Amino acid sequence: MIVAWNKKTLNRTTPTLQAVVNPMLRRGSPIHDASIAALRRLGCDYVRYAFWFPYPHLSVAELRAPEQNQTYWDFQHMDPLVEDFMAASEGRPVVWSFSTAPQWLYTTPQPVAHPEDPDQVMWHYSQGRELHDLQALADYYARLVSWYTQGGFTDELGKFHSSGHHYQMRYFEVFNEVDGEHEPTPQQYVEQYDAIVEAVRKVVPDMRFVALALSYPEGGAHMFEYFLDPKNHKPGIPIDYISFHVYADPTADQTLDHWQFTFFGRANEFLAATRYILRIRDRLSPTTKVMINEAGSILSGDMFQGEPNHVEKPIPPAYWNLSGALYAYLYIELAQLGADTVGESQLVGFPSQFPSVSMIDWTNGKPNARLTVLELMKTNLGPGDDLAETEMHNNGIPADTDAIAAQAFIAGSQRKLVLINQRNREIVVELPKECAGATLQMIGGTSPDPVSQSVGDVRVRLLPFSVSIVTLKD
Hints:
The protein is an alpha/beta fold. The chain folds into two domains: 13-380, TIM Barrel, CATH 3.20.20; 386-471, Golgi alpha-mannosidase II (Immunoglobulin-like, Sandwich), CATH 2.60.40. The chain has nine helices and 21 strands. The protein has helices at residues 32-42, 56-59, 78-89, 134-149, 186-203, 221-227, 256-284, 317-337, 369-380; strands spanning 2-10, 14-20, 47-50, 94-97, 106-107, 130-131, 152-154, 160-162, 171-174, 208-214, 241-248, 289-297, 341-345, 386-391, 404-411, 414-421, 427-430, 439-443, 451-454, 459-462, 467-471. Strands 2-3-4-9-10-11-12-13 form an eight-stranded parallel beta barrel, surrounded by four helices. Helix 5 links the parallel strand 9 and strand 10. Helix 5 packs across helix 6 and helix 7 runs parallel beside helix 8. The longest helix is centred in the middle third of the chain and has 29 residues, at 256-284. The model has no long low-confidence stretch (mean pLDDT 95).
C-alpha cells in the first residue's frame, strides 16, 4: 500500500443515517429510550427522518378527506415522534421526508381503508397512480410544515389549529422512491414537486428541497434527465438536491459465503450508476447537490414480510459486520465522487419492518455493528478533511489484497487510514512504513465492539468483514 499524502482532494461527504417511523420509535416501546439515546450519541448532521406508509397513523396527518362541515387532521401519533427526534438532534440540520401523501388524493378502484391500530402494519396503503387534486396535495404539505414551524395552520374550512411547534425545518424531501410508489412520469413528478415547493416556500421561504429518492437509480436516467433540466420547471423553482438509494439484496439461496461477493458487487454496480448520474447533473444543473440517503442491505426474507405465514429466519451475527463494512466502503467511494451525504439505513427495523436493515437490536436496544461502524467513521472523518491518494498492492504478501479497500485522509493535523476487509476471513495487510507506531481501531468478526491496538510491525491482521481506522503518530 502506498499513500501520497501530498496528493489530496477536499472531502465534502457527511456520514449519516436514516430513521424511519415505526412502533419501536414510539414512546412506551421497549427500545424507544435506547434508540433515541443512540441517535443523540451519534450526533450526525442531515439525518433523514422518513414518515413512510406501512404505519399510516404514524406517517399521514390527514387520513380522511375533508368533508363539508368537518376535517380530520390528527397529529397525536406523529407529534411525539417529531418531538423526540428533534430533542435527539439537538439543533443539527435534519432532512424531513414526509414521504406518504394521504391516500384519498389518489384514484383507486375502491377506497383504501386503514387500520385503526397505529401499531398495525399495512403494506398496501400506498395505491393508485392518478393524483386527482394537485392543489390539495400542495396544500396538505404546506399545512403540515406550518404545523411544525409556525405554531399551527388554517384548515380547508378556515379553522385554525394550534400546535405550539416552532421547529427549524430547513430540508424537505418530496416523496420517497417514486419509481415504486405511485410511479409518476417525469412530467407528473416535476409538476407535483413544483406545486409542493411553491406551497411550502410560502411557509418557510428558505427551505431547501430534496427530490426523487429513487430506489433503483440504474433505471432512472429518464427521470434524472427530465428533473434536472431547469427548463422543465416553473421559473424560480430550486433544484437543490437529488437523492437515490442503494441496497445489497442477496437471493434466498445464497449464504454468507456468497454475500461477501454479492454485497460489494452490488456496491460497484451502484457506484458506476452514480458516476453516470453525476454526469447528467454536471451537464444540466451543476449546482445541485447529491444525497445518498438510504444505503444498506436487505436479506431476502424481509421482502416477504407482508406475506401470510411469513417466518423470520435467524440472521447470522457476521451479517451485521458485513453490512457495516459495506456502508464504510460505499462512504469512501462516494466521498471520492463528491456526494454530499451517505446515509446508512436505518436506525430501527424489526420483524414486520425490515429487521435486517436495523442498526439497533430490537430485542434489547443495543447497537449492532452497522451502528458502531457508522459511529467509528463519523468520529474519525467527514466533510472538511482531505482525501489522500491511496494505492493498494500486495508487497509480496500471499494474500488477495484486492479484497481490501483503503482510503487515507487527513483530519486536521492527523493522518489516518481507513481499511475495509471485504472477505469472511482474516487478511494480512502491509501498511505504509510511516504507520509504524500508529494506533488501530477495528470492528470486525461477529462483534459490534471496537478493539484498539498499537501498530508495531506494519503488517496487520484484519478480522473478517472488519472496518479499521489507523491513526498515525504526529
